[in-house]
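Sharing a chain and its predicted structure for anyone who wants a worked example. Both blocks are below, sequence first, tokens second.
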Amino acid sequence: MKHYSLYKILSILFSCLILLSACHSSKLADLKVSENGRFIATKDGKPFFWLGDTGWLLFNKLTREETETYLEDRKQKGFNVIQVMVLHTTEAVNAYGDSALVNRDVAKPKLTKGNNSTNEEEYDFWDHVDFVIKKAEEKGIYMALVPVWGGNVKAGHVSQKQAEIYASLLANRYKNQSNIIWLNGGDIKGSDSLAVWKKIGKTINDIDKKHLITFHPRGRTSSSDWFHNENWLDFNMVQSGHKSYEQDTSANEKRHFGEDNWKFINDDYRMNPIKPTIDGEPSYEGIPHGLHDSLATRWTADDVRRYGYWSVFAGAFGYTYGQNEVMQMHKGYSSSTSFGPREKWSVGIKALGSSQMIHLKNLMLSKPFFDFVPDQSLVLDQGSRYDYLVATKAKSTALIYTYTGRNFKVNMEKIAGEQVKASWYSPRDGKTLEIGVFDNKGEQAFNPPAEPKNGNDWVLILDSK
């Protein structure tokens, strides 16, 4: 009997160790700004290439089973960050009908003490948020949380006092969770309710020293427009927006960059103090140009690839993809339906662009990512608009992206070595075509495969030999 009891005890202890090991293994690495101030690194100094997806209404719209489907799909496609609203509105409810707040007061989350039921009828809004965050953690995905969407603050629904109480509650709830990134703001200009945004940023940062924080701005703006020198802002985020060149005509817009999202990155890259920057909302795949006319031309996989390579080669530390139906978790038409969705989110997750973004991530991580610096002097005929070529280099590697696949000339001798090995990399499928070996001097012409056209995009890779 004694031996049997000891055996049972050892079995229980062994089982506990397995459970503890499983829990520990799901913890993700803390993130920090790299030593050179340009990138994001894990705690042990390894490169973290942010490949984000906009699942803005994930907490509101998807059940637990649907959440599993969505997160697994994004994991398989290489996404490691999901950008999501905690509160889309002060009337927010989840897929089970549970409200987030008491009387629409952000300072009064509707919490059910000790309730983490597996019974759908008893799901607490905040327990469901916890479930989604932990499920993402299991899959190696960070959750970039917007505490409250910007329009609620602009409309006067959140005072400074309420903001401080709410931000404190959120920060304390998630400060020990491994996979959190904070996105203050939410499609809003920082000048709209500036004091509230500063209060949220400082409050979260004072309580939660572990997690990075930025500000998600309005279209055609960057967090750097208002918060670059704030101590709580770890990195800048741009929303290059959804307008085409032809639509970018408003005299009220500070930057008339059209689709040239690389120009936003250039602006942030030149600022002091040095901080990392990223395009956190370029045009979404499947959404109409300019957003609001459902009959307008829609952005395609070609476009989202272009935004990705343009911004990363210009100096961004990663890229956020978006898809029309997925970003709003569209299930069917309702009063909250926006931007002319044509299918359900479960179909939208299969959009072509979502499976192609991993090739950008793989390319950059196959090279010394932290060593890359933008260098347009590599290209002799840079072009403009869709013909624009964007270039980046490290000590022994240079990368040049062409969206149209036109012929161009390269100014050699920009990287080490007497000779370089040249190859073409396809953003569409991640395959590499060898070109040959060239002397690393003078000018060299390159002719990408196929005839020039929008979407015939290639990356010229030059490696020291």
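Comments welcome. The first helix runs from residue 2 to 26.
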